[in-house]
Design goal:
The protein is of the alpha+beta class and 242 residues long. The protein has two domains: 4-110, no CATH class; 137-200. Helices cover 38% and strands 15% of the residues. The protein has seven helices and nine strands; from the N terminus they run H-E-E-E-E-H-E-H-E-E-H-H-E-E-H-H. The protein has helices at 4-16, 60-72, 88-93, 137-151, 162-191, 220-229, 234-238; strands at residues 24-25, 32-38, 42-47, 55-59, 77-78, 99-102, 107-110, 200-202, 205-207. The strands form three sheets. A four-stranded antiparallel β-sheet has the order 1-2-3-4. A three-stranded antiparallel β-sheet has the order 5-7-6. Strand 1 (24-25) and strand 2 form a beta hairpin. It is flat and about 70 Å long. The N and C termini lie far apart (75 Å).
């Protein structure tokens, strides 16, 4: 096992090599953040989904504490043992070539060979790439709504005349309906790509597939017989409280 100082400087080198705008995601709360500054004694991060406490320094001594726990324990360090708001630390450690987060097992581990990171993969469009208008109802509805919102001062709805309110309300309904239609189409494709209870993150958020189990009512006679076997009289079961 390499000394902490060696692993720490390897991590700092990985952070320095990150591309501008590189975004990471925490393993527990799934908060998105970026590295805003790299120093010898700390790493400063900037959360993308918070209105308050957007910037936060991560201290070197806390990285060292986590390093010791990861390397000292067989099977890795269990993420649910982290203190509150500490999950940016393993997310940053995942950039080190010898550390990896296994969200299925809920651990961060040290391993040989290639490792994955908590970086969110985003595709930057080429500057000269031409965009084409999609032939989608929600796109047309959204453009009409944007135009209406720009032409009226919607910050004070009471100041709008009735016709303007009717137009905005109608367009909002159209966008909601067409967006939901497209959402259902996207959902159908996503279902074939997601694993149960495993969140997948994108640039604007994360989605998770959950399973539900439907329950059916037991046959009345079967319920009565079961209750009678337990020593409860049939009359007590079928009577109505007065």
């Amino acid at each position: 096992m390499a000394p902490f100082s060696v692993s720490w400087h390897n991590l700092l080198e990985e952070l320095d090599d990150l591309s501008e705008g590189a975004t990471l995601i925490t393993p527990l709360s799934h908060d998105r953040f970026r590295i805003s500054d790299v120093q010898e004694q700390r790493v400063v991060i900037e959360f993308l989904d918070r209105d308050i406490d957007e910037t936060r320094p991560l201290q070197r001594d806390q990285f060292e504490t986590m390093y010791r726990r990861i390397t000292d324990e067989r099977g890795g360090f269990e993420l649910d043992r982290l203190p509150p708001d500490a999950d940016p630390y393993p997310a940053v450690w995942s950039l080190h070539p010898r550390f990896e987060i296994d969200e299925d097992e809920g651990v961060i581990i040290e391993k040989e060979g290639p490792t994955s990171t908590q970086l969110i993969e985003t595709e930057e469009p080429a500057e000269d790439e031409e965009r084409t208008e999609p032939d989608l109802q929600v796109y047309s509805d959204a453009l009409l709504l944007i135009d209406a919102l720009e032409r009226h001062e919607v910050d004070v709805l009471e100041g709008l005349d009735t016709n303007a309110l009717v137009n905005i309300y109608t367009l909002l309904s159209d966008v909601q309906r067409s967006a939901d239609d497209l959402r259902q189409d996207v959902r159908g494709v996503l279902l074939g790509r997601l694993h149960h209870d495993q969140p997948v993150a994108g640039q604007y958020g994360s989605v998770q597939r959950t399973s539900r189990r439907n329950r059916t009512l037991k046959d009345e006679e079967q319920v009565v017989e079961t209750m009678e076997d337990a020593g409860i009289d049939r009359e007590r079961i079928t009577s109505v409280d007065s």
